[in-house]
Amino acid sequence: MAGTRKTATAVVLAALALTATACNDSNDGGRNAAPAAPTTAAAVVGAPTSTTPSADAPSTGAKPVKLTPAVLLEQVTQKTTAAKSAKISEVITVGQVTLKGKGAVSWADGLQGDITMDLSDSPLGSVLAPVTGGKTAPYRYTKDAMYMRLGGDAVDAFGGRHWLHYSKTDMAKASGGSTDQLKSADPVQGVRTLIAGGKVTEVGQETVNGKATTHYTGELSADDIAGATGTGLTQDELAQIKDNLTTAGVTSETIDVWVDADKLVVKRTEQADTKVGAMTATVSYSDYGTPVSTTAPDPSDTVELSELAKLDKGATG
């Protein structure tokens, strides 16, 4: 059971790597800043305009020209990134494992926030109960790490300590991502990926979570993303995205985003077939600008991942 619990914990971490796409480190010298909206005359002509001239502006007789999806989504990256924080609600399914999460995160200065994962709809809920003390798993994100709240037998096993510490390197090993994953992810990563693929299309107007939104979609291959330029992503970031897809056995990925009238992301989904089964991740965003204040647990109250591995070996023996 100990080895199964360790594996289950790794699966939860892999899913939480998707949670990390809710956040961004904007304190990186602008390397991950959203691509600037075009300022050329063509872009200005393409800006949305009213069909009725204003009282103090002469009518030119020109018909309003709708923004292309790519241009509008570039503006969405700016608005959403500038909002700095939001409440999130998510459902992540990987094969037979389903996780649900709720919380609030900030990407103003690295990833910070608190998210509670509900494991009650997954076999992992029972498997992890000795570690978490129940079928929910509270997680705390700081700029440089992630912490999982321990409960039940685990607290006693670790001398009364309550938080399992995962460094960025630990997260990368568990999720198959890069050590920069937490730093580079943000609530519009899916938007940037759509732009990178160059195949984004507008689906239409839809009401999502009580808001009027515009739905955009794109199906992208690893080669689509790796060959993209001019998207605000560096070549290293594009290569990392391709490598992550290849490692997971993903040949194509469908990304959908829903954007409201304020050009903020209301919902994002990612769907793909992976080596361990179908993956669907849905994240909803609300209350942009919500206050988020998260601090790392005291070191005396934390447990390192290496200690968990030793405990598993001892229990197995």
List the helices and strands and how they pair.
Blueprint: H1 2-19, H2 41-45, H3 69-83, E1 85-94, E2 97-106, E3 112-118, H4 124-132, E4 136-141, E5 145-149, H5 153-157, E6 163-167, H6 168-175, H7 181-184, H8 189-197, E7 201-208, E8 211-221, H9 222-226, H10 235-247, E9 252-260, E10 265-274, E11 277-286, E12 302-304, H11 305-316
Parallel strand pairs: 6-12
Antiparallel strand pairs: 1-2, 1-11, 2-3, 3-4, 4-5, 5-6, 7-8, 8-9, 9-10, 10-11
Helix pairs in contact: 1-4, 1-6, 1-11, 3-8
Keyword list:
single chain; 317 residues; outer membrane lipoprotein receptor (LolB), chain A; 12 strands; disordered N terminus
Write a structural description:
The chain is of the alpha+beta class and 317 residues long. The chain has a single domain, classed as outer membrane lipoprotein receptor (LolB), chain A (Clam), CATH 2.50.20. Helices cover 32% and strands 30% of the residues. The protein is built from eleven helices and twelve strands. A twelve-stranded mixed beta sheet has the order 7-8-9-10-11-1-2-3-4-5-6-12. Strand 2 and strand 3 form a beta hairpin. Helix 3 (69-83) runs antiparallel to helix 8 (189-197).
Assembly context of the chains: single chain
The dominant shape is globular
Walk across the major sheet and give the strand order: 7-8-9-10-11-1-2-3-4-5-6-12
Helix share bin: 25-40%
Number of domains: 1
Q: Which parts are unreliable, with pLDDT below 50 for 5 consecutive residues or more?
A: 1-57, 178-185
**What is the level-2 CATH architecture name?**
Clam
Helix tally equals 11
Largest sheet, strands/sense/barrel = 12 strands, mixed
Spatial gap, N to C terminus: 12 Å
Helix/strand class = alpha+beta
What is the name of the CATH topology? outer membrane lipoprotein receptor (LolB), chain A
Order of helices and strands: HHHEEEHEEHEHHHEEHHEEEEH
Give the amount of beta strand, in percent. Answer: 25-35%
